[in-house]
Design brief:
- By secondary structure, the chain is of the alpha/beta class.
- Helices cover 30% and strands 26% of the residues.
- It has helices at 44-51, 77-83, 89-97, 106-111, 128-140, 156-169, 186-201, 237-240, 243-250, and strands at 4-15, 18-29, 34-37, 67-69, 84-88, 174-178, 205-210, 222-227, 230-236, 254-259, 262-267.
- It has a six-stranded mixed beta sheet with strand order 5-6-7-3-8-9, sandwiched between helices.
- Helix 5 (128-140) crosses helix 6 and helix 6 runs parallel beside helix 7.
- The longest helix has 16 residues, at 186-201.
- The chain is globular, with a radius of gyration of 19 Å.
- It starts with a strand and ends in a 12-residue tail after the last strand.
């Protein structure tokens, strides 16, 4: 079997006195492209924060580590960043609106990945090899023409392609996509996810966090349903991604439709689905 990317063993996170992640046990292995699906408030963002070590779980009474990422329970956060490629609307916002250094170019955004920074280049040496790899990443993302453009002058779709290039420029072992197409129009959504598919076929493990079924690219074979901080279902896509399971998850009748290799979900007329009792 391949090495684990993420191991949760009874992981619990408490916020404001509430268990937002409740004794979750989950293992995702290298090459096991996985989608984690749930409504808002299900605990998806907290799970991502455990993966990136932005959040820490409660200690276990038996002393076992509740979270291991790439086999280790502790990481230097800068070393971990080089192993995980992150794409989300929050990362996009950080670069466009939260960069205290002002506007940066597409090339600078990609180069910052090698320095584990959010676009600040003055505190590290940029080598010729870094520039070569950044150029290659931009080309692979279909964004070579955006290298000299300012990130805050790009459309959302263009900027997201640059950030995709940034995410895999360091050849990370896993690409983490947290609601990656939020804010993109339909054409930009499709173009972006087709680029992601190419990375999956090249061997980069995908972990997708979403409540948009259309973001689950065909290469993703495993789906985990998360509800109220607990795993509601986990298994092969064809067994988990069903109208019945999604209706229970979102507490409303859901219809799943297929178009080509993609699946889509839409609400169906009908009363809310009864909330399953927590065990």
């Amino acid at each position: 079997m391949t090495d684990p990317i993420l191991q949760l063993s009874g992981a619990t996170v408490v916020k404001d006195g509430r268990r937002v992640l409740d004794a979750v046990t989950l293992t995702i292995r290298a090459g096991e492209h996985t989608a984690i699906v749930g409504p808002n408030g299900a605990g998806k963002s907290i799970l991502v924060s455990l993966l990136t070590h932005a959040e820490r779980p409660l200690a276990r009474a038996d002393g076992e580590a509740p979270v291991r990422v790439l086999g280790a329970s502790t990481w230097n956060i800068f070393d971990l960043r080089s192993q995980l490629g992150m794409i989300s609307s929050a990362v996009h916002h950080q670069f466009v609106n939260g960069n205290s250094e002002g506007s940066i170019s597409g090339e600078a955004a990609v180069l910052s990945a090698f320095l584990s920074s959010w676009g600040v280049l003055r505190y590290g040496a940029v080598t010729a090899d870094m520039r070569r790899r950044a150029a290659a990443a931009l080309e692979s993302a279909g964004a070579s023409h955006l290298g000299a453009r300012m990130l805050d002058e790009m459309s959302s779709g263009e900027a997201r392609r640059v950030l995709l290039a940034r995410a895999f420029a360091t050849a990370p072992r896993v690409l983490v996509l947290d609601e990656p197409t939020t804010g993109l129009d339909l054409a930009a959504q499709h173009a972006f996810m087709e680029r992601v598919r190419g990375l999956a076929r090249q061997g980069t493990t995908l972990i997708l966090i979403t409540h948009h079924i259309e973001e689950i690219v065909p290469e993703i074979g495993r789906v985990v349903l998360l509800r109220e901080g607990r795993i509601a279902a986990d298994g092969p896509r064809r067994e988990v991604l069903t109208s019945r399971a999604l209706s229970r998850l979102f507490q409303h009748p859901i219809v799943i439709e297929s178009s080509g290799e993609y699946q889509y979900a839409r609400p169906a007329p009908g009363p809310p689905v009864a909330r399953p009792a927590r065990g």
